[in-house]
Sequence to fold (456 residues):
Amino acid sequence: MKLWSGMLSGELDKSAEKFNSSIDVDKRLVFYDIKASIAHAKMLGKTKIIKDFETDKIISGLEILEDKLKKGKITINLESEDIHTFIEGELVKEIGDIGKKLHTARSRNDQVTTDLRLYLRDEIENIKKLLEEYIKVILKLANENLDTIMPGFTHLQKAQAVTFAHHIMAYAMMGLRDIERIKDYKKRLNSLPLGACALAGTTYNIDREFTKEILEFDSIMQNSMDAVSDRDYVMELQSIISIISIHLSRLSEEIVIWSSQAFRFVEIDDRFSTGSSIMPQKKNPDMAELIRSKSARIIGNMNQSFIMMKALGLSYSKDMQEDKESIFNSIDNIEISLKVMTGMLDTIKINKSMMLKSCEDGYLNATDVADYLVKKGVAFRNAHHISAHLVKKAMDMEVSLSDLKLEYYKEESDKFNEDIYDFINLKKTVESRKSLGGPAKAEVKRQISYVEDKLI
Fold:
C-alpha cells in the first residue's frame, strides 16, 4: 500500500508507477533514513507524543533492520516507491502496527531532505580527505623538483622559465581553496529541516532542538516552508564539485600535453596508461583524458540542479526528487577522479632534461634581457624593443640568447657588457624572481610550508 493512497482509488498505471519511483536512486540513503528515524522516535518519546514502550519498540526495530541490512539478511525491495516507504514497511513487518506511529509529526518532505543532508555531510568529509591526499602528493612532487627548470606558458606559448615545483604548486593552491569552500559550505548544509513536516510544521509539541542535538546539526531551519523546499545546499555542492573538477581537468590537460611525443616532459606510469588496439607503439594518457571528460558530466549535473529549481514556487514539488541522481553522480565522479589523479601524480616520472631543453630552445630569458637594460637606466618600453630585436636575430641565426655573440648585443645597445650572459642564465633568472609567489627556490619552499600549515 502506498503511504499516500488513502483517498485514491485504483492502482497507478505501471509506467506511471515506474516513473514515480525513486528507490533505485535513493536506496543509498537507507542508513541515513534509519539514523534520522531513530532520532525522530527518541524525540517523539521525550515529548510524550508516543509512549515510552512504543519508542523503545520502534528504536529496537530500526536497529534490527539496520543490522539485517548490513549483514545482507534482507535486501532493499526495488518495488517499493522510495527508501522511506521501504523502511517503514519493513519496520511494520518487524514490530507490527506500532511501527506506523513512527511517521507521527513528520512528512516525507522534511524526512528526505534530512536524510540527504546527513548523507552529504559524510560525503563532503570524504571529498575533503581525498583533496588532502591529492595535495600531499603535489607537495611531494614539488619538494622533489625545486631545481627542475621548465617553461611557463601563456597562450600555450613558452613565456618565462619557472620550476616544475612552482608550476605544480599552483594546483596545490587551487586544492586549498576547494577545501576552504567545503568547510564554509558545511555551515549552511548542517541545518536541521526535520520537524517542518509537509510545509506548515505540526500541531504536536515536538522538540526540534532535541532532534538537532541527537543528529549533530549546528542549527535548525527557521521557516518550515524553506526547510522542505530548500535545495540551495545541493546546488552549492554541485558548484563546489564542479570547480574541483575544473581544477582536475586543467591539470589533466597539461598532463596530456606534457606526456605527448612533442613535449615528453613527463611519462605516465603504465598503471595509469593504456595502449592502442592497432598501433603497438602508443601509450595513451586515457586516465587524464577521462578525468578531463568527467568534468563535463559534473558541470552538466550542476546545470541540471540549477535549472530544476529555477521556476519552482514554494514549497515542495515532485521535481525535487530529481535532485539526488545528479548530486550522487557528481560525488561518485569527483571521488574517483581525485583517487585516479592522486595515483597518477604519485607515480609520474618527470623528464628534467627535456624541460630544460625546451627552455633553452624557447628564448625564455628574453624578458631578462630587457630587465638587464632597465637596471642600467633604459626605459622598459625601449628595453623591450631591443630585446625583441635580439630574439629575432638569434632566431635567424638559430642560436640561443646565451649563445648570441656580445657584438650583436652591442649593436642594439652600448649598455650590454659580458655580464649579460650571467644575468640571463636560466637558473639564475628563476632564482632572481624572489617576489612573493614567484618561482625562486626559497620562495617555492615557503609556498610548500604555507600549504602544509593549512593542511594541519
About this structure: The longest strand covers residues 157-163.
